[in-house]
Design brief:
alpha+beta; five-stranded antiparallel β-sheet; two-stranded antiparallel sheet; 3 helices; 7 strands; 24% strand; globular; DUF985 domain-containing protein
């Protein structure tokens, strides 16, 4: 059963095609980011994929054990989920190009082939399930 949000088709992550190495980007304009423990984040990606839900770019920082989900701009202002940190205006996130897997950064979800971000409502459900909680 697909878990799609009732939203128009999500835009593509066109910025990803221009990257050749990890680059620092400001959050809060084209997207916000949600930081979560990588174990929960990877489980959330797998849940979204299994349910047929579009997944935007997700970066796994193996250096700090965190995963970063790109979400629609403005998500950080209203995000209220335990065990996560919302990164919006005034925050910076290092993003890696598609296929990057060297060093401490690797993409969990390829940004060039999917939407520009994961819908916040879908991410909320996936993170709740991945953390072992229940959903409504």
């Amino acid at each position: 059963m697909a878990m799609h949000s009732h939203q128009p088709r999500l835009p593509r992550a066109t910025w990803a095609r221009r990257l050749s190495h990890p680059t620092l980007f400001a959050a809060g304009q084209d997207w916000d980011a949600i930081r979560v423990d990588a174990t929960i984040g990877v489980r959330a990606v797998r849940f979204l994929e299994a349910s047929g839900t579009p997944v935007g770019p997700v970066l796994h920082d193996q250096g700090n054990g965190q995963a970063y989900f790109l979400t629609p701009p403005g998500t950080a202002q209203r995000w209220r989920q335990e065990q996560t940190l919302a990164l919006g205006e005034g925050s910076w996130v290092v993003l890696a190009p598609p296929g990057w897997g060297d060093g401490l950064l690797r993409g969990v979800s390829d940004p060039a082939d999917g939407p520009a971000y994961t819908a916040a409502s879908d991410l909320t459900i996936a993170l709740t399930v991945a953390a072992g909680g229940e959903t409504c």
